[in-house]
Amino acid sequence: MNRTATLLETLKKYLKAKGMTYKQLADEMKLSEASVKRMFSKHRFSLSRLDEICRILDIDFYDLVLMDKQRNRPSADRLTNVQEESLLKDDKLWIFLYFLLNGWSVSQIVEDYQYSEPEAVRMLGKLERLDLLEVHPHNRVRLLIPTNAFWQNNGPLWQATHQMFIDDFMDSSFNLPNERLEFIPGQFSEASLKIIRKKIENLVKEYHQLAEMDASLPIKGRYSTGLFIGFRPWVYSVIANLRRRRKTNT
Fold it and tell me: Other CB atoms closer than 10 Å to residue 10's CB: what's the count?
């Protein structure tokens, strides 16, 4: 796939992640939906058209190129047990990696957090030896894992830290403009349960896609967030305790 094609593929994914349809984009551009679909399918974009789409999405062309590089970097799907156990030995090391995964430069980390420059250089060396990144001149890094590969499901990092993260995350009233907490019990058929599970999977997938792309954008204007979703067959214990005990035949 040539560079133009990969840029347009990144642009399509960004459109989807932002929830904008071809029809909505066509309306903004004063074009027909068919024309917009044809431009994407045949890769027929003038620079002015591309700039117009970027303006509608509130990004510039440079942002798009950065997102394309981020999306197409070669990477492992998940950290290994050895990598996770090594990170667990040093809290500052995995926090340092977390910043790098989210697009921070080494100089920004040193300026804003309690890391000295020699310490940062040592951490880059450790992370490179763990095959998590490559170090280039002037402390530039090429990451070898995507943001959503920060830990394995139920791996060493998650097992050691998940309760701490959950307790810290839930210590909020969730009443600020960008916060949301809902708890809604219900009773569903198996078919409806499958639909809900699929919607959750799609939400998580889009969350990761946006995080991957936005990691290339400037730090200013980005916000650290947490998404916590819990869904399972469940009956409140107070209700369950009211259930009649059925007599068994002897």
Answer: 20
- Count of domains for the chain: 2
Q: Are 43 and 8 in contact (CB under 8 A)?
A: yes
Buried b / exposed e along 45-69 (16+ C-beta atoms within 10 A): beeeebebbbeebebeeebbebbbe
Three-state secondary-structure class, residue 140: strand
Give the mean pLDDT of the chain.
86
| Rounded Cα distance, 128 and 143, in Å | 9
pLDDT of residue 181 exceeding 60: yes
SS3 89: coil
Give the domain CATH number at 45.
1.10.260.40
Distance CA(145)–CA(147), nearest Å, equals 7
Average pLDDT over residues 116-122: 96
Q: Report yes or no: 8 and 38 within 8 Å, Cβ to Cβ.
A: no
Alpha helix positions (H), 144-242: 156-169, 190-214, 237-240
pTM for this entry: 0.63
Domain hosting residue 46, numbered range: 3-71
3 pLDDT band, cuts 50/70/90, is low
pLDDT for res 2 = 63
The reply to whether 59 and 87 lie within a common domain is no
What are the pLDDT digits (tens) for 23-77?
A: 999 999 999 999 999 888 887 778 888 888 888 888 877 777 777 766 665 455 6
| Count of Cβ atoms closer than 10 Å to residue 166 Cβ | 13
Burial class (CB in 10 A: 0-12, 13-18, 19+), 94: buried
